[in-house]
Amino acid sequence: MTTIDLGMPGAGTFGVPHLHEDAPPLNKKELASDMEPRWCAGCGDYSILAAVQGFLPELGLKRENIVFVSGIGCSSRFPFYMNTYGVHSIHGRAPAIATGLATARQDLSVWVVTGDGDALSIGGNHLIHAMRRNVNLKILLFNNRIYGLTKGQYSPTSELGKITKSSPYGSVDRPFNPVSLALGSEATFVARTMDTDRKHLTSVLRAAAEHRGTALVEIYQNCPIFNDGAYELLKDRDEAEARVVHLEDGQPVRVGADKLVARGDSGELTVVEAEGADMSRVVVHDAGADDPSTAFQLSRLDDPTMAHIPMGIFRNVSRPTYEDLVHAQIDDVVNAAGGSATDADLGALLMGNDTWTVAD
Amino acid sequence: MSIKPVESLDSVVIRFAGDSGDGMQLTGDRFTSETAALGNDLSTLPNYPAEIRAPQGTLLGVSSFQLHFADHHVLTPGDAPDVLVAMNPAALKANLGDLPRGATIIVNTDEFTKRNLAKVGYDVSPVEDGSLESYHLHPLRLTSLTVDALADFDLSRKDKERSKNMFALGLLSWLYTRPTTGTEQFLKNKFGSKPDILEANLAALNAGFNYGETTEDFAVTYEIAPAKMQGGAYRNIVGNTALAYGLVAAAHRSGLQLAMGAYPITPATDILHVLAKLKRFGVITMQVEDEIAGVGTAIGASYGGALGVTATSGPGVALKSEAIGLAVMLELPLVVVDVQRGGPSTGLPTKTEQSDLLQAMYGRNGESPCAIIAPQSPGDCFNAAFEAVEMATTYRTPVFVLSDGYLANGSEPWLIPDVAKLRQIDIDFTTEPNDVDANGEPVFHPYLRDPETLARPWTLPGTSGLEHVIGGIEKADITGNLSYDPDNHDKMVRLRQAKIDGIAKSLPDLVVDDPSGDAGVLILGWGSTYGPIAEAVRLARKDGINVAHAHLRHLNPFPPNLGEVLARYEQVIVPEMNLGQLSLMLRAKYLVDVQSYTQVRGLPFTSIELAAVLSKATANLSGAIR
User: Which residues of A fall within a CB distance of 8 Å from B248?
Assistant: First the structure.
């Protein structure tokens, strides 16, 4: 490959038309479509929709340059409720369709809304490859650990032993950890947040939007009908405080008020009492670390008992995006040739190097 | 100039055969290029195993390249070779059955060792046991002649031996009075950075040519006069390249950026290879994780206003089916190239077949109509691709281009199109409200159709005021809102079908070649069988058999006059390389008892075989002998 200097990667929305600085920003209402959301009462999707509609105006983008692409599932209804452009596609394929769109149109802010089944089961292949390529997509993965739209079967994030309609004796499928998967897929931005924590959710979305490249945001989302209470422990302030592993850049990784994450003798990460901790072994979070190993280790603190749940931005590094590289190659060739191809160029292509002429 | 007598021929079929590592495809390619430069009309057919390097010296590993060239219009790569060049016993054994008695066989006896003979079940060398005496046999020590010619080169014996294909090419070039300057230039380009190898290949080529001149083995040389062809600039082209160029030309004429999503698959991969090089034309190629992503990225690109294209073969179409259905529902332009190969399942990846017609027609859930165009020759792949783009963008629909392995890898001289005469493709993106609401206020309705084409607006993200969501769930007519209404669904299913059916209004009538005007038998083909059928018709007419011939390019919808054409003939014969898929469609639609003639051997029909079918059919006609 020819080396192409793309300079410093810009913000995630670089190249997307913004509203004039004097124009009033969009308001939340303008981003809501006239379609009434049809999620079940109490569904976590409502709060995520509200958070997205609430935060998007901050970006200052023109509404028409925002596109939401989804697959199939409850979460994939999302585009219908946004007054932007949108595609409600087919099961699992949103990352592929969004890749084509983002590659063809760098002037769009492209968001993928997906769920644990859509993204990690039927669409797993597209998800990991979008992240590997670092396409400039913001992927919101609503994880409720259940299939909702098909009325309650275990999903690839359901815990082992989960009793559902399709696993009456308990699920024997080991679940994915979506954050570990994303880190293993070379994702440049990986975060976890929660539907009920509006402030945290918004801050993560903001960081994702600023990131140029694929941003995978896992959002813990409660399904009140088929898997109610999946994240109940985190809704109780005290329980949450005791369990959440706070990932704050430049800060020691803290668990609750009195514990820290430290490196053990074999390099493993353990949760230790803050009091008397060997501060040289305490992990200081660095989302920008080039090596994703520590981020991966942090993702493994998560376990089925929810003893420790890392929340926040695991990884946030700069790497050229797929579409920037694709267009740089094309632009290089086109510019070197002095501009867009003409009829004469096409004629030369068709003619080739080995022609002969037959007289009339 | 040769000092030996020169004999004139009107047409020759040569087959180069050897181990898949022997460089037979390259040898064939170069001979083709020399022949094209001389002005003969020609047609080629490569035939190679699916394995890149099958076990050496075995029947499985035989790779061949057949070339038919003549002083007249050539329609097929030839039924049976006049000349076989066999680089080893396996190549001889695998191809001997196709040779008519009296054919010329050139064998490389250096490879006829006990071991190699045993590998293919020869106890005694057929070169020595007299079993080939009804052929013109030229047993030549091709390998040692090559090594001897390169005695002064500081190369390993193995490297020297590798030039034996150039020796053979040199010899054949002499035998058929072909110029070798093009090949010399080709070698210079290919091996410019390896002067030793370049010089060795040039020396081997030259030695082969001189060998023909000096040996007593060959008494005469042959010449074939240039064919009478339409005036203009020509090149030789294979179907996959022509198809890729057709897409690029159409993108250029429409002003759209070509965006291809694809996953490598035989025999379609070369389309991706060709397009990946064409950054000069702004072409985006995305080699993605699987076939589904190939079509998914193409659909995403089309939604964004690019020209979304995906190219694959039958197994890939199967994987893409659901997404093609989405494109039917979204009503976005999409070109799906299916280079058909032997099926089902993995089938015969490197062999040709026409068995995806019904898959293209019906291989999706729901009522999911797509337009289908099939090219009839390698060069025609250009036109088919260009037309597919016009159709996809005009009607906002997926369009299949049904090529096949025979067209993809086969080649023919191609009259290079005049760029100035390529049709303009006007793209009309909708940028303003297109309707009024109940209060007379301007509104945008994404499923309000053009009354003529029934196409819906193509509106790109980034267009202010026209924000809307599209998707796979049924749409309400006109507004495009979600709708589960029974009557609406019935209407939309019919509208999507009517849109595809309506394309027929823009199609030219099917042209029937019926010189006498009173033939009783019509032979009707589609796709790559054009050459063998047309040649069969020519042979039949030579024998005084009166037949009509027509060839379908548009498989969905059919040309408007097809029913009337079918009704005009007492008997309609439809040869296909499948079990009668077009026949099924014709019988269903027109209630005509067409006679299906089928063969699924992974190889094209021979014209002799089809001529016999015609002869039988005319003999069986009721009433007066025609």
Answer: 346, 349
